Amino acid sequence: MTSPLNDTDRRLVDAASELLVRTHDADLHRVAAAARGASGQIYLGLSLRSPRVSVCAESTALANARIGGEQDIEAMVSVGLREDGTTVILNPCGVCRELVPAIAPGIRTLADDGGHPVWVTAADLLPMPWVRARSYD
Ligand SMILES: [Zn+2]
Q1: In this structure, which topology does domain 7-125 adopt according to CATH?
Q2: pLDDT tens across 45-80, in order?
Q3: CA distance 72 to 27
Q4: Cα(14)–Cα(82) distance, rounded to whole angstroms?
Q5: Cα 6 to ligand 1 centre (Å)
Q6: How many CA atoms lie within 13 A of 132 on its CB side?
Q7: Taking the alpha carbons of 117, 114, 63, 130 in that order, is the dihedral positive or negative?
Q8: Would you say the pTM of this structure is higher than 0.85?
Q9: How far is CA 93 from its chain centroid?
């Protein structure tokens, strides 16, 4: 784990935060994410929620990065909205801890460690990932 934030990191957090403040809807969009590609471009993602199915903001940010032509996605952050209207860094859910490294194996994720932002690798988030017993290809 490495920490604090330089200006480039802060822009990533700000991009996700600005999106969530603008679009937050308790029923539809509770989380925003921002992913930075190797080009330096930032791609946004927004959670999608319905009574039966939800899609995480991280996955939509990664999809947007791929749509934008990014082969390598270097960094990502997700944020939620506090009741006072300020944003807070959210740690990825279990599904994202499996999904994100499959799409972006070298990604660093900005996580919250007791109120302190820390950059973590996929191995930090999921140290013993699920693997198949064998190949079925
Ligand atoms: Zn998730």
Answers
A1: Cytidine Deaminase; domain 2 (3.40.140)
A2: 999 999 999 999 999 999 999 999 999 999 999 999
A3: 32
A4: 15
A5: 25
A6: 4
A7: positive
A8: yes
A9: 10
**DSSP conformational letter for 34:** E
CA of 59 to the centre of ligand 1 (A): 7
How many CA within 13 A on the CB side of residue 29? Answer: 18
Residue-wise pLDDT tens digits, 76-114: 999 999 999 999 999 999 999 999 999 999 999 999 999
How many angstroms does the Cα of residue 8 sit away from the middle of ligand 1?
24
Query: What 8-state DSSP symbol labels residue 125?
Result: H
Take residue 61 and report the two structure tokens written for it: 């940010």
Q: Which residues are within 5 Å of ligand 1 (an ion), measured at CB?
A: 56, 93, 95-96
